[in-house]
């Protein structure tokens, strides 16, 4: 959904500071590592199915292998498409906690002459607090990888992430690779990506704040490089080429002006020997308001403007029809046939244009499109039907099937086999950033989720996308709070970013919703976590602006009809309800390291235990189910703490070196305490653990093949199924694990 507020793709600065990797030399090379046997931990791990939900930034069909394709995402890793199975296989789940910054994929490259070879350029952020990038290389389509750590940073979740592939196998030599960076110019490898050095002779000068090289594409034996830091004038080049891999030159006669300021993608028609380039006035995916499409006859050097529709018109309702151009793909089977996409076209909605005559005329595929989103109903976004898309920058035409076109949006991949009927081509690709999870003790659904960008969902099945789609009335963008009354599980409340209200309640376990009758004035600018007490008679709502500013919490005892400020509640804290006693609420003040409690259903709070770890808003307090006053505090590398007296005192749990998030599930047979699950650390690894003996001992339940980068937000067990655990990731959706039987 379009929103000016920070979404799940906002910088996790707190997490980044804690886990940013140390920069290493490009000479640091890791050997090939096979993925460990799935289930080596005694668990089987799968995604809870939603279907996509994130920005797919690139799709690349293999030019030499029918049915083989690869996809990249901005924060959720890379995938390989299996046409026979009709699904995507994740390729980077082995990247662990310390490598969280490598889950963003800046670029993918394949070698047309060696079908097993695939290369990934990884690095989510290019900021000072983020670790350096890396290149993964595989000889077996991603089944095993070798890794080279770079001494530069990449930015797969920054502006320009929807541009073309910045990684390329040289068309003259399979041992030579090129890598375009944002701030460090053009790099070259002559040993298939094992080592990298600055490419000599590349004329464009990198800057610390620019886009740098935005794509690399082969045109015959030549290599073209798009440059994102031109100013749009004829005196500043934004497209370069080399014919011999050594000498580079600016391409003569290239277009200029605002509509051709930033080249976004390029593709070469081998039949007509023409290079097509899409342009915009900003790198995107946001902020583009002008753009164009041009082609270069590489033999003669002649340029032509083939823009389908010039931005800047007026829609029927009088809105300005501003947009740029983004996606671009040629049909390798048919000369002069290609497709391009608009981007950031909010007034008239983005589309894909197709031409069969080299750009003389174009057809908008949106105009005749028929969508079937029954497999992923959330794509209707609370409306009667889905729209064609937004953030369309990934676009590909199957080299073996001219009518098989796929394009990415900010939430899915759509595919067609006849240029008219479209459906999500997304099975196996799950990119949600997960904020909250609840596993109800009764009812049809074993899981409710609060998610970045797509609100709240009711999962009646774990193996199919929720049939109700996003929770509506109102529809949210990113969820900020989700809570269930422990003694009245039919009562659920939620909070989040929305244009038509920021809070809602459900009396049927989350199937249907009604908005709060009223909400505090601050809510629309700073919706935060929400809690309900055990019997649902009192609500506490905390408020935190996306920039970190904290505001006073509010309380309601009439289902959100009226609200009153609670000045004694620590600003910005997350309210925690006692699961057994409706008069009790708790809050952990991370600024002071103090536990506060309320004995009057949240009307007032007083301090109890103090002197606990402080200074990190990501410390988490949870209450054990079915017990009053049994509290657990995950304080990261400060360890795990427990109170059995309602927060009057805490003791450190000796069995745990570091704890990031903790939850509970059904007890093991013969045990009298719930199973405990946590994301925690030993002195060597951060992993997912289970304890069946009240945290005396722990068993690791994930393995090295299933790590998913940063997983410190939430983990819970299923209160009805022993051993089942649900884990939130930041870009790989909801993972759930079950013991092998």
Automatic annotation (TrEMBL):
The keyword Signal applies. The keyword Signal applies. Keywords: Carbohydrate metabolism, Glycosidase, Hydrolase, Polysaccharide degradation, Signal. It comes from the Bacteria. Gene3D superfamilies: YVTN repeat-like/Quinoprotein amine dehydrogenase. Residues 1-34 form the signal peptide. Belongs to the glycosyl hydrolase 74 family. PANTHER family: OLIGOXYLOGLUCAN-REDUCING END-SPECIFIC XYLOGLUCANASE-RELATED, XYLOGLUCANASE (EUROFUNG). This is 1,4-beta-glucanase.
């Amino acid at each position: 959904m379009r929103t000016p507020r920070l979404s799940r793709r906002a910088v996790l600065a707190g997490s980044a500071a804690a886990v940013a990797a140390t920069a290493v030399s490009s000479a640091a090379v890791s050997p090939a590592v096979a993925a460990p046997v799935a289930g080596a931990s005694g668990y089987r791990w799968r995604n809870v199915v939603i279907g996509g939900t994130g920005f797919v930034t690139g799709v690349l069909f293999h030019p030499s292998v029918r049915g083989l394709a690869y996809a990249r995402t901005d924060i959720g890793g890379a995938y390989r498409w299996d046409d026979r199975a009709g699904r995507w296989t994740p390729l980077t789940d082995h990247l662990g906690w310390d490598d969280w910054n490598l889950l963003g994929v800046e670029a993918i490259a394949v070698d047309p002459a060696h079908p097993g070879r695939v290369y990934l350029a990884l690095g989510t952020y290019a900021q000072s607090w983020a670790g350096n990038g890396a290149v993964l290389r595989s000889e077996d389509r991603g089944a095993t990888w070798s890794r080279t750590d770079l001494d530069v940073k990449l930015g797969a979740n920054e502006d320009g992430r929807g541009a073309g592939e910045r990684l390329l196998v040289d068309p003259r030599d399979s041992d030579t690779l090129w890598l375009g960076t944002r701030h460090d110019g053009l790099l070259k490898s002559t040993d298939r990506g094992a080592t990298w050095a600055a490419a000599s002779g590349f004329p464009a000068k990198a800057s610390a704040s620019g886009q740098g090289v935005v794509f690399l594409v082969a045109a015959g034996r030549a290599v073209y490089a798009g440059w994102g830091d031109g100013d749009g004038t004829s005196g500043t080049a934004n497209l370069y080429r080399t014919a011999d891999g050594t000498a580079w030159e600016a391409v003569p006669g290239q277009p200029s002006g605002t509509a051709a300021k930033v080249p976004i993608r390029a593709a070469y028609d081998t039949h007509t020997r023409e290079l097509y380039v899409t342009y915009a006035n900003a790198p995107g995916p946001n902020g583009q308001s002008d753009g164009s499409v041009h082609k270069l006859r590489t033999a003669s050097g002649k340029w032509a403007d083939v823009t389908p529709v010039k931005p800047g018109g007026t829609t029927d309702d009088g809105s300005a029809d501003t947009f740029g151009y983004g996606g671009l793909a040629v049909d390798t089977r048919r000369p002069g046939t290609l497709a391009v996409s608009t981007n950031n076209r909010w007034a008239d909605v983005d589309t894909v244009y197709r031409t069969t005559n080299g750009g003389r005329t174009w057809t908008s595929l949106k105009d005749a499109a028929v969508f079937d989103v029954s497999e992923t109903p959330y794509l209707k976004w609370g409306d009667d039907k889905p729209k064609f898309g937004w953030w369309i920058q990934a676009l590909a035409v199957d080299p073996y099937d001219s009518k098989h076109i796929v394009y990415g949006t900010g939430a899915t991949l759509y595919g067609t086999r006849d240029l008219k009927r479209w459906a999500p081509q997304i099975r196996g690709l799950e990119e949600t950033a997960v904020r909250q999870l609840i596993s109800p003790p009764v009812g049809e659904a074993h899981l409710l989720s609060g998610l970045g960008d797509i609100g709240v969902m009711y999962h009646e099945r774990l193996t199919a996308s929720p049939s109700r789609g996003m929770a509506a009335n109102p529809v949210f963008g990113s969820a900020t709070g989700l809570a269930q009354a422990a003694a009245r599980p039919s009562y659920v409340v939620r909070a989040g970013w929305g244009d038509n209200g920021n809070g809602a309640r459900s009396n049927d376990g989350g199937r249907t919703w009604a908005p709060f009758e009223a909400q505090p004035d601050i809510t629309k600018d700073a919706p935060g976590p929400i809690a309900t007490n055990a019997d649902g008679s009192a609500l506490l709502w905390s408020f935190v602006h996306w920039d970190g500013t904290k505001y006073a919490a509010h309380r309601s005892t009439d289902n959100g009809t009226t609200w009153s400020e609670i000045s004694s509640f620590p600003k910005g804290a997350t309210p925690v309800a006692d699961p057994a006693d409706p008069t009790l609420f708790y809050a952990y003040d991370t600024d002071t390291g103090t536990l506060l409690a309320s004995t009057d259903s949240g009307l007032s709070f007083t301090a109890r235990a103090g002197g606990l770890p402080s200074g990190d808003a990501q410390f988490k307090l949870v209450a054990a189910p079915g017990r009053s006053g049994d509290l657990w505090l995950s304080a990261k590398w400060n360890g795990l703490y427990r109170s059995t007296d309602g927060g009057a005192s805490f003791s450190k749990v000796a069995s745990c070196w570091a704890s990031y998030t903790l939850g509970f599930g059904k007890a093991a047979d013969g045990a009298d305490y719930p199973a405990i699950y946590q994301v925690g650390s030993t002195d060597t690894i951060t992993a997912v653990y289970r304890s069946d003996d009240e945290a005396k001992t722990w068993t690791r339940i994930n393995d090295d093949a299933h790590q998913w980068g940063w997983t410190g937000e939430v983990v819970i067990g299923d209160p009805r199924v022993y051993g089942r655990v649900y884990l939130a990731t930041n870009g790989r959706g909801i993972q759930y694990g079950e013991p092998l039987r």
